[in-house]
């Protein structure tokens, strides 16, 4: 069969051996999201969910496992946990951010699967989880809109302040220029007066000398 097959991490996840999972992943040679082609692309997290090992689920997710990884039929770990009635695994997956409303290739969500297999406790939990997720999405959407509005207002404020700064700079430059012109006019007037005074003194000296 083409593609990777079950690794030691898959086996440890299926056995619920969290310590072994840690040891293997710390070696750095295993892909925590490796799909097992022999078992329809199941990842170690799928196996942990199937067997209901909540602690192993947490360890795998801490090491980067995709909580919404899908098999070749579109089943997530939550689909498997719902099918078998592993409520602790479902709760762990949901707490760790799994999307419990993902549809498989037939359009079924984990709650649909739990309903088909008569897993009443899982059905009730998933109803609540779906409701909480919808509320959270609405809250996130509202917070995003509010954040974007604050950012828009801040940007508008910065733009107005920059315009005001530039206006004040231009006004200051204009006043300085006008002041310079006025000073030049006054300076020219004084020089002219001094010239006339010197000419008068010179004329008086000549007249006195003529006498």
UniProtKB/TrEMBL annotation:
Residues 137-181 have a biased composition (Basic and acidic residues). SUPFAM superfamilies: Ankyrin repeat. The keyword Repeat applies. Residues 137-211 are annotated as: Disordered. Keywords: ANK repeat, Repeat. ANK repeats lie at residues 40-72, 73-105. InterPro entries: Ank_Repeat/CDKN_Inhibitor (IPR050776), Ankyrin_rpt (IPR002110), Ankyrin_rpt-contain_sf (IPR036770). This is Uncharacterized protein. It comes from Patiria miniata. The lineage of its organism: Eukaryota, Metazoa, Echinodermata, Eleutherozoa, Asterozoa.
């Amino acid at each position: 069969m083409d593609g990777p097959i079950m690794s030691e991490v898959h086996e440890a996840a299926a056995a619920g051996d969290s310590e072994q999972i840690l040891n293997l992943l710390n070696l750095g040679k295993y892909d925590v999201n490796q799909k097992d082609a022999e078992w329809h692309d199941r990842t170690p997290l799928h196996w942990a969910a199937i067997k209901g090992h909540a602690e192993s689920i947490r360890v795998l997710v801490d090491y980067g496992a995709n909580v919404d990884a899908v098999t070749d039929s579109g089943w997530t770990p939550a689909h498997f946990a719902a099918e078998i009635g592993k409520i602790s695994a479902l709760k762990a997956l949901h707490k760790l951010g799994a999307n419990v409303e993902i549809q498989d290739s037939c359009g079924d969500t984990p709650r649909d699967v739990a309903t088909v297999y008569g897993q009443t406790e899982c059905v009730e939990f998933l109803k609540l989880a779906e409701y909480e997720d919808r509320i959270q999405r609405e809250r996130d959407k509202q917070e995003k809109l509010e954040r974007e509005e604050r950012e828009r207002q801040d940007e508008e404020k910065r733009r107005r302040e920059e315009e005001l700064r530039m206006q004040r700079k231009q006004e200051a430059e204009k006043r300085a220029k006008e002041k310079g012109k006025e000073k030049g006019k006054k300076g020219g007037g004084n020089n002219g007066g001094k010239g006339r005074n010197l000419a008068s003194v010179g004329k008086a000296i000549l007249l006195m000398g003529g006498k």
